[in-house]
Structures are given as structure tokens and as C-alpha cells.
């Protein structure tokens, strides 16, 4: 835990107290919040390092996943701390009990079912040993030899019958578990509607109380740090930051809250639990009013947020752009060679995808397309090359006979990404038509541009419009392999036609983090000058 930091606005504070922000942190303290482990989130890393470089005292709080070797480190002049979040609220007590109305034959939980099956296995193993002992004469039954064998046969029959019964109940238990994971039955839909109707935006407390785990882990740390500004990244941290702001104000301290919305929450489709989305939409709606300023990743999303939450002003747009600074500014380590990692030379056509590896990102089309692109190779730059989805892609490549031309390599630090990607020939963004994919220029769009790669992008609205307007690549119909192959061939045949777009004066200058950091710094400055007493309670 950090020491208790005095309020820099308190005129009674001891001027000799070295815990108060001085020097590089003299503009005030910003506590940034994110619900991940920071490492793979380039946006929050850039936020923290650039704000600290601009003179703010920055502490970035993330979530310890259990895999990180370090829980504290520095990003430039910013401090990063990972907090342990105990996931205790995700499973409700009634989910550990039986469900006689839903599945009367199911055990209360899969753990109980697994125990029962193991118990039957142990019973049958014991009976096998008893049988062996009877056969060798090491176990002399009081019933005599014949009676002992009859008794053993009856017990074996009982064990087999019990095993079959346990298997039946296990199947019902798995079905109950799937029901609880999806919450998609008519009964679940009815209860979800009931809580939304009766509790409104507070309904998340019943539908998905798991976000309380973040509050209980982050809240006390934020209070102790006594920030001037809380920068809450995305919806989970919006609630955490809102309540921290309210507690601070109740204690007489002026704190401003910045909400950084990364996506349009009603458009999220990735949750299997059908209660999750309405619960989190209600959670976001309850806490959005407490934000003193809102920033987001695109103009389209800014408009949606202003309309959805009736914000008094349009959110500031801070693009997910890469930094223009040298790749070595945080470390002297050389940038890895992408082609060397793939084991190919400089003349081999290389198509690259960098970022989240998930089915809705459409990466399978890059594997399927290799059948019609016999000279090309594909590189997936992913957080973990052994992710299940990456393994699925590799298995598919093997079935198609192109496995030697598909490569999976790990992420590099965000400040090395542009240089790392620059040796490829084409940057591919094959994402599907999901609501959040339609409204933003995603991080890799800017990274590919600064790597001066011609693009091949699916026809999701915002990226397709920008690509056509600038001429920096080809657009293909999402999930259409034939059209994808056409687009790749067009780019590989005349790459300079597309890279000429990057020579337009000033174009790449707008797509750098340094320009975005100025926007964000302007938001912080406005809030501290107004001491957070502006538009929201």
C-alpha cells in the first residue's frame, strides 16, 4: 500500500511533506483504472506514460491475473500497480444448490458430480482388490468362499448400477451448468425482465453482482491515494471510479472523474450469459452521470454515447493511435524481426494480423485464402500463440495443407509494434459485422498505417469508408473468401499505389498518440481548473 497522500488543495498541509506531488507530478495526481493486467493494453499504457511526461503524478491500477512476475513497475514516470481481485461474487449461493424445478436429477454443482463419480470409481477399485484377495485366499470371508464370491458379485452389481445412475445425474448436472452459464431459458428471461422492470438501472445488483469484486479490491486503494482526477477505463471501472469520487466528495475533497469509453456496450455480443449485457448496460447507465468528462475512441462512438446517456457535451475523441517516438525509448532491446520469427526471407509475400485473436475477428479467412495464394504466408501476432482459437486456425491450416505458411508469434511491447510490423507486405483487418466493429478505427488500423503497410480490410463501415477515402488499401466483403483473395492480390500486385496514401502531407501526423495525448491533457487541465465542479454531480 502507498502512504496516505495529503490533499494538495489543503492549505494546512505540511510544506515539508515529501509525499505531496512535487516536480514531475506537480500538476496533480491522476489515478487511472483498468480491469486488466495492463501488459496487453497499449491504450492505457500510453495514457499513463504520456500524462506522467506532461507533469502529472500518475498511478495506474490494474488487475493481477496470477500470471505476472511483477505487480509493480514503471511506465516512464508513471507507476503501475496490479491489485488482487477476489472473484467471490460471480457465483451466487443459490447456484451452489440444487435446482429441482430446472433439472431435478442434477447435482447441486459439477464439483459434487465429479466427487460422486470419483467415489464410485474408488468403490469399484476397492472391490477389485477384494476380489483379488478372495481369489488368493488373503481375505477369508465369514460367509465362506462361495458366500464371499456371491457377496462380492452383488456389491459389483450395485457399484455398476450406481455408476450408471451417477453418469445420468452428471449429464443433467452439465445441462444445468450450461443453463446457469447462458441464463437463456424462458424462466431466466422472465426473471431478468422482472428485475429490470422493478429495479431499473440498479438491477445489475441482482443480475450480475460480480462487479462488486472490483469495487472491493480497487476502492480502498483509490481512497488512500487521494487523487485529483480518476481516469476510469471502460464500463467496469466507471462504477468503481464513480463511487470513489462520491466518497471523496463526502470527505470534503474535490475529485474529477474521466470516463474513457472503449466500446458501445449495448453492441457487445461476446458474453454467453444472457443476463450479463442487460446487467452491465444498467450498471453503465447508473454511473455515467457521475463522469465530469467523457473521452472515447471514435467520433461515431462519441455520438452514440452522447445520445444514449444524454451527455451535456460530445465526448472528446482520443484515437488508439501509435506513438511517433522511437521504439527504443523505454528499453535498449532490439525490435524482433517478424520475418525471422516466421522463418522466411524478404521476398516472400507476408500478410499480417496483429491483435486480439477471436472468432469475430475473422482470422479464419486468412487461412482459407492461402489455398488461392500459393506464394503468400500469414503471421498472426497474438497475446499467446497457444490460444485455443489460434490452435484451431493451425489445425485448419494443416487440413488445408498450408500449415507451413501460417505462423503465430507473440506480442511485442506497444512501443515496438510499428517497427515490428513494418517488414510485412500487407496489414489485414478481416473483422465481422458486429456493432462495435462498425463505428471505430481500431488500433491496428493506425499501427498498420504507421508501418506503411497497404491494408486489406473488411467492409465494416468506418474503416471501409476511411480506407476508400485515403486509398491506402482494398476493401472486401466480410466473410467472403473469394473477395478477400481478390483484395489481397490487388494489393500485392501494386503495393506502391496504396502506400502512396501515406505520403500525403500531414496525414500520419494526425494519427499519432502525441496528438491524442494533447487532447487528453486538455481534458485533465480543464477539470483541474474547474476543480471537478462542472457539469455532473
What does this entry show, briefly?
The chain contains 20 helices and 14 strands. With 537 residues, it is α/β, with parallel strands linked by helices.
Overall description:
The model is unreliable at 1-22 (pLDDT under 50). This protein is globular. The strands form 2 sheets. An 8-stranded mixed sheet has the order 3-4-2-1-5-6-7-8, with helices on both faces. A 6-stranded parallel sheet has the order 11-10-9-12-13-14, sandwiched between helices. The protein has helices spanning 42-53, 110-136, 144-182, 186-199, 204-207, 212-225, 234-250, 276-288, 299-309, 338-342, 364-369, 388-400, 417-421, 435-438, 443-450, 461-470, 481-493, 495-499, 507-510, 513-530; strands at 29-33, 57-64, 72-75, 78-84, 229-233, 256-261, 293-296, 316-317, 350-354, 377-382, 406-410, 426-429, 455-458, 473-476. Helix 1 crosses helix 20 (513-530). It contains 20 helices and 14 strands. By secondary structure, the protein is an alpha/beta fold.
| Helix segment tally | 20
Low-pLDDT segments: 1-22
Query: Which band does the percent of strand residues land in?
Result: 5-15%
Q: Helical amount among residues, as a percent range? A: 40-55%
Radius of gyration: 29 Å
User: Helix- and strand-based class?
Assistant: alpha/beta
- Terminal CA distance reads 29 Å
Number of distinct beta strands: 14
Which outline best applies? globular
Please outline the major beta sheet: 8 strands, mixed
**Order of strands side by side in the largest beta sheet?**
3-4-2-1-5-6-7-8
Average pLDDT score? 87
Amino acid at each position: 500500500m502507498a502512504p496516505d497522500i495529503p490533499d494538495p488543495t489543503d492549505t494546512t498541509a505540511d510544506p515539508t511533506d515529501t509525499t505531496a506531488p512535487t516536480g514531475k507530478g506537480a500538476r496533480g495526481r491522476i489515478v487511472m483504472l483498468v480491469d486488466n493486467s495492463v501488459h496487453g493494453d497499449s491504450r492505457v499504457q500510453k495514457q499513463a506514460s504520456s500524462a506522467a511526461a506532461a507533469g502529472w503524478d500518475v498511478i495506474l491500477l490494474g488487475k493481477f491475473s496470477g500470471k505476472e512476475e511483477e505487480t509493480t513497475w514503471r511506465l516512464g514516470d508513471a507507476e503501475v500497480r496490479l491489485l488482487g481481485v477476489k472473484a467471490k461474487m460471480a457465483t451466487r449461493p443459490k447456484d451452489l444448490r440444487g435446482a429441482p424445478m430446472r433439472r431435478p436429477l442434477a447435482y447441486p454443482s459439477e464439483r459434487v458430480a465429479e466427487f460422486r463419480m470419483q467415489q464410485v470409481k474408488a468403490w469399484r477399485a476397492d472391490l477389485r482388490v477384494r476380489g483379488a484377495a478372495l481369489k488368493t485366499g488373503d481375505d477369508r470371508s465369514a460367509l465362506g468362499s462361495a458366500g464371499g464370491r456371491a457377496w462380492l458379485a452383488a456389491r459389483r452389481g450395485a457399484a455398476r448400477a450406481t455408476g450408471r445412475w451417477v453418469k445420468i445425474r452428471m449429464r443433467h448436472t452439465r445441462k444445468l451448468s450450461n443453463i446457469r452459464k447462458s441464463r437463456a431459458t424462458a424462466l431466466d428471461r422472465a426473471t431478468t425482465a422482472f428485475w429490470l422492470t422493478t429495479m431499473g438501472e440498479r438491477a445489475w445488483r441482482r443480475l450480475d453482482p460480480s462487479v462488486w469484486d472490483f469495487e472491493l479490491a480497487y476502492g480502498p486503494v483509490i481512497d488512500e491515494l487521494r487523487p485529483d482526477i480518476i481516469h476510469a477505463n471502460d464500463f467496469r471501472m466507471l462504477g468503481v471510479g464513480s463511487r470513489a469520487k462520491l466518497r471523496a466528495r463526502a470527505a470534503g475533497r474535490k475529485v474529477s472523474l474521466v470516463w474513457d469509453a472503449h466500446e458501445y456496450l449495448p453492441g457487445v455480443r461476446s458474453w454467453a450469459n444472457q443476463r450479463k449485457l442487460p446487467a452491465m448496460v444498467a450498471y453503465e447507465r447508473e454511473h455515467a452521470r457521475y463522469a465530469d468528462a467523457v473521452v472515447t475512441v471514435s467520433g461515431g462512438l462519441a455520438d452514440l454515447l452522447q445520445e444514449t446517456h444524454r451527455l451535456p457535451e460530445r465526448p472528446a475523441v482520443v484515437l488508439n493511435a501509435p506513438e511517433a517516438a522511437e521504439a527504443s525509448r523505454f528499453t535498449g532491446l532490439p525490435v524482433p524481426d517478424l520475418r525471422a520469427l516466421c522463418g522466411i526471407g524478404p521476398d516472400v509475400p507476408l500478410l499480417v494480423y496483429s491483435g486480439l485473436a477471436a472468432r469475430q475477428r475473422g482470422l479464419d479467412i486468412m487461412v482459407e485464402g492461402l489455398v488461392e495464394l500459393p506464394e503468400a504466408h500469414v503471421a498472426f501476432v497474438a497475446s499467446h500463440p497457444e490460444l485455443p482459437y489460434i490452435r484451431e486456425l493451425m489445425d485448419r491450416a494443416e487440413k488445408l495443407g498450408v500449415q507451413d505458411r501460417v505462423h503465430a508469434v507473440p506480442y511485442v511491447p506497444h512501443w515496438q509494434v510499428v517497427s515490428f510490423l513494418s517488414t510485412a507486405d500487407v496489414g489485414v483487418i478481416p473483422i465481422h459485422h458486429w456493432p462495435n466493429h462498425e463505428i471505430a478505427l481500431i488500433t491496428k488500423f493506425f499501427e498498420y498505417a504507421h508501418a506503411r503497410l497497404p491494408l486489406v480490410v473488411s467492409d465494416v463501415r468506418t474503416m471501409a469508408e476511411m480506407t476508400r477515402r485515403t486509398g491506402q488499401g482494398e476493401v472486401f466483403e466480410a466473410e467472403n473468401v473469394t473477395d478477400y483473395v481478390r483484395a489481397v492480390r490487388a494489393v500485392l500486385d501494386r503495393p506502391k499505389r496504396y502506400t502512396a496514401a501515406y505520403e500525403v502531407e500531414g496525414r500520419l501526423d494526425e494519427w499519432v498518440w502525441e496528438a491524442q495525448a494533447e487532447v487528453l491533457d486538455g481534458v485533465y487541465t480543464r477539470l483541474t481548473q474547474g476543480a471537478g465542479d462542472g457539469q455532473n454531480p
